[in-house]
């Protein structure tokens, strides 16, 4: 048996075999690739709803063209607002492509602004740009009310869909009540949009309609999100029977 510390001669080039001393905590180079592969993300894992939407930046990006139209229309008129909105939609799409971010939100925003621009062009009125949004809010409000009646409140479905937690929460009365209350808040938000913006639409008050669209957009949604989080967290922390 050869001594691991012995010197071996291969021709004229002596070589010395020195046993490797492992440092505590240092990964073994022979097994490190296997360990790294084990820590990689599971390729079969389904992306959550929030990931499919591109996260918070994706949600904001999908609404940029609408915000641009609201501002430019107030300043430069309908034609300038439509052009600016479409340009903004294309710019957001290109920006996300360059960053290699999910482009689904940008495509959704571009399609949405395209529909709104088409309606506005057909009607020849700037208020036509807001009509699809009003109809969409009415649909969401009605869907929220129906979900409460059938005891599948949308707040719970969406919340657990974003976090991929499943639908076991429906078996807990406290959580079901909490999500029903949160869904009622969202139904109120959509109803408020339909009522206030609908009255401004009927009055042909395009300037105030644009202001209401901005004011009842992210600020009102942010309040609804905060209320939902507080209600749900309180219900989740409550002691279970």
TrEMBL record:
Record-linked Pfam families: DUF3159
Keyword Membrane in record: yes
Keyword annotations: Membrane, Transmembrane, Transmembrane helix
Basic and acidic residues: compositionally biased ranges: 1-12
Origin: domain of life: Bacteria
Chain residue ranges for the region called Disordered: 1-48
TM helices/strands, residue ranges: 55-75, 81-98, 105-122, 134-162, 174-196, 208-232
Coiled coil: none
InterPro entries hit by this protein: UCP010219
Name of the molecule in the record: DUF3159 domain-containing protein
